[in-house]
Design goal:
This protein has about 400 residues and is α/β, with parallel strands linked by helices. It has 2 domains: about 140 residues, Aspartate Aminotransferase, domain 1, CATH 3.90.1150; about 220 residues, 3-Layer(aba) Sandwich (Aspartate Aminotransferase, domain 2). The structure holds pyridoxal-5'-phosphate and (2S)-2-amino-4-(2-amino-3-hydroxyphenyl)-4-oxobutanoic acid. (2S)-2-amino-4-(2-amino-3-hydroxyphenyl)-4-oxobutanoic acid binds next to loops.
Length: about 400
């Protein structure tokens, strides 16, 4: 144990991203492991939001719409683009992930006519499956749930699109974006990726892997704040044919003309539906400042190293614990420990200042946010788990 204490201290002292923690408003008495559900607030966000309320909403009043507010969804999307390996003009911030999933799924079936099946990652977060069922009902498709790794065998000439999670929200496993996208394309199907648990955690290469469509949340590893708007990616090759079903005025080619008939905007703005949620959007805009100058390679290295250290501590301090997260590099930045009494254990951990979460039926999740999680906190989490197991 003393070795682990010294090791954690040495790892923290040598961490090239350690200084980033100072950018966040975190209570040091708490070890926060839920950045994969609700990211921590960067310190400067509160002041920036207050300034927007005072100076833009207050001072400039309605003039603010033509002084940057209206175009903010594309501008902030442009800031997310490098984090997902997208060239400019393909990412817009709007609505929630659920809503963007609906837009993307229906648009995908229209991009791939004559096909009548939507494949969904069987282990997906519920909203993806629910929305796929409804998109299918409206488009005359059927939904088939298949294990992500089996997609290359399951995709067929009937498949219009497959919806896959980059990182599994329960186990933390990463799915191979390049290989699965390639296999889907080989059968003529489109690839729609849910990036909720990978954006801001590991490098994502949408353009390089040929992904067609993607969605993701901004309130997890991007720290945009509770309910911060999500993003939608449409690859350039599909943009002019991307016909989404929530064709509201904000996606029209000329919203201010208030024309009678909708004509989609030529660019990524066609992914928008209605008026943007400016306060949340500008909170996200401010939160994205923490990424300035962050080397994405270092981010991945630290995410993996935090996980490695979790495994090392668990091997030493938790007798025979079962961990659902793969030990190799096919994992995101989360460790999931199996516990038959997981709800109770997580409540006890939270009581002791270790905040992770519980996912039914038996998973304790520990999110590792490379910008602020420390090795010392990892040791504290595993030590506390061990103490609880001993009773
Ligand atoms: C994989 C995945 N997709 C979608 C969502 C959520 O979508 P929404 O922000 O619409 O609630 C989550 C988490 O809430 C998620 O983990
Ligand atoms: N979005 C959430 C919320 O509004 C309340 C509670 C949890 C969430 C989540 O983000 C859940 C998350 N997607 C998950 O991985 O389980």
């Amino acid at each position: 144990m003393t070795d682990l204490v010294a090791e954690a201290a040495a790892l923290d002292a040598a961490d090239p991203l350690a200084h980033k923690r100072n950018d966040f408003d975190l209570d040091d008495s708490v070890a926060y492991f839920d950045g994969n559900s609700l990211g921590a607030p960067p310190k400067h966000v509160a002041g920036r939001v207050a300034a927007v309320v005072r100076e833009e909403w207050g001072g400039r009043l309605i003039r603010s719409w033509s002084e940057g507010w209206w175009e903010a969804p594309e501008r902030v999307g442009g800031r997310i683009a490098p984090l997902v390996g997208a060239a400019p003009g393909q990412v817009v911030v709007a609505d929630s992930t659920s809503v963007n999933l609906f837009k993307a799924l229906v648009a995908a079936t229209r991009l791939n006519p004559g096909r009548d099946e939507i494949l969904v990652d069987a282990d997906t977060f519920p909203t993806d499956g629910y929305i796929a069922d409804e998109a299918a009902r409206l488009t005359g498709c059927t939904v088939r749930r298949v294990v992500a790794e089996d997609l290359p065998d399951e995709v067929s000439e009937r498949t219009a699109v497959a919806l896959v999670n980059h990182v599994d929200y329960v186990t933390g496993r990463v799915h191979d974006m390049a290989a699965l996208t390639g296999a889907l394309h080989g059968a003529g199907a489109l690839a729609l990726w849910d990036l909720c648990h990978s954006v801001g955690a590991l490098p994502v290469e949408l353009d390089a892997t040929g992904v067609d469509l993607a969605v993701g949340c901004t309130y997890k590893f991007l720290n945009g704040g509770p309910g911060a708007p999500a993003f939608l990616y449409v690859a350039t090759k599909w943009l002019t044919r991307f016909e989404q079903p929530l064709a509201g005025w904000a996606g029209d080619r000329d919203p201010s003309a208030m024309r009678g008939a909708y004509e989609a905007h030529a660019g990524i703005a066609r992914g928008r539906a209605g008026t943007p949620d400016i306060l949340s959007l500008l909170a996200l805009d401010a939160a994205l400042d923490v990424w300035d100058g962050v080397d994405r390679g270092l981010l991945r290295e630290k995410g993996l190293a935090l996980g490695d250290f979790f495994f090392r501590c668990a091997d030493e301090l938790l007798d025979g614990a079962t961990i659902a997260t793969p030990r190799g590099e096919d994992r995101g930045h989360q460790i999931s420990v199996i516990d038959d009494d997981a709800a109770k254990t997580m409540a006890a951990l939270i009581d002791r200042g270790v905040i992770g979460d519980f996912r039914p039926p038996n998973v304790l999740r520990f999110g590792l946010a490379p910008l602020y999680t420390t090795y010392g906190e990892v040791l504290r989490a595993v030590t506390t788990l061990g103490e609880l197991a001993e009773g």
